[in-house]
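[stage:ingest] chain + small molecule (magnesium ion)
[stage:ingest] validated
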Amino acid sequence: MLRLSNLHKRFGQVVALGGLSLHIPAGCIFGLLGPNGAGKTTTISIAVGLLAPDSGEVDLGHGGTPERAEVRRRIGVAPQAIALYDDLTARENLDFFARLYGLSGPQRRERADALLARVGLSDRADHRVKGFSGGMKRRLNLAAALLHDPPIVLLDEPTAGVDPQSRNAILEMARSLRDEGRTVVYTTHYMEEAQRLCDRVAIIDRGRVLAEGTVEQLVGTLGGSSVVTIQTDEGDTRIETADPVGELGRRLAAPGVRGVRVERPDLEAVFLHLTGRSLRD
Ligand SMILES: Nc1ncnc2c1ncn2[C@@H]1O[C@H](COP(=O)(O)OP(=O)(O)O)[C@@H](O)[C@H]1O
Ligand SMILES: [Mg+2]
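[stage:predict] done
[stage:export] tokens:
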């Protein structure tokens, strides 16, 4: 559905992408997980045709490249740097972007109303964006990406700088877009979000894909051991194991067990394994 092949991009001396390749299957939420500066925004910008790669190719399905307007119409992007007019109201912003997409007057009103409701901003429709919270701006930014009903949606750090309530609304929105059959590309530096939300994840660092798969595959192959802790009256025993279920089964039969705890590795452990660094650094 979306294929990026061997993308290279430099900004002066900085290598933003050093041969990044990805195949993003249709109908899933595909996470690009990596720390700040990994190349996520550069990847999104090239995928949607806002930025030209130095070399490499983008295929948005059936050989379509983002230079072609009819191909670009199949994608919606909610940029990391929020693209809204502060002095316009929520509805005026959506109307402006809908005009760019060439929607007719009645279509524009209908789409704007539906999307304002969908992102929970109907009661703020006629307020200027200037007074909006970070979360409200993010939600409107997302609505603007959906006006032309695109089958591919790219969300670049859609939860940056938002309150927990907006964060949940945005995660829920990404799921519902997927459930409607759209392909969702979701960038984040929050391991927890990628883990909770994404059907597949590519871990990227320094402009390259280090690993790609389902969360389960990545954690299973690259996350390292689980830790089983057995609590008894004599104290806690901590066991590192690749087979926490088997370990529990054997240990639970012993007398005096008061409690157990299982800690499974997460995507943070995968990143650490791959790079020797923490995602949070
Ligand atoms: N317009 C630009 N000019 C110069 N350097 C840039 C520009 N855009 C990105 N970079 C650099 O390219 C690298 C990748 O950036 P970016 O794609 O924004 O990463 P991410 O979105 O993962 O944080 C970083 O080192 C960043 O500083
Ligand atoms: Mg970015």
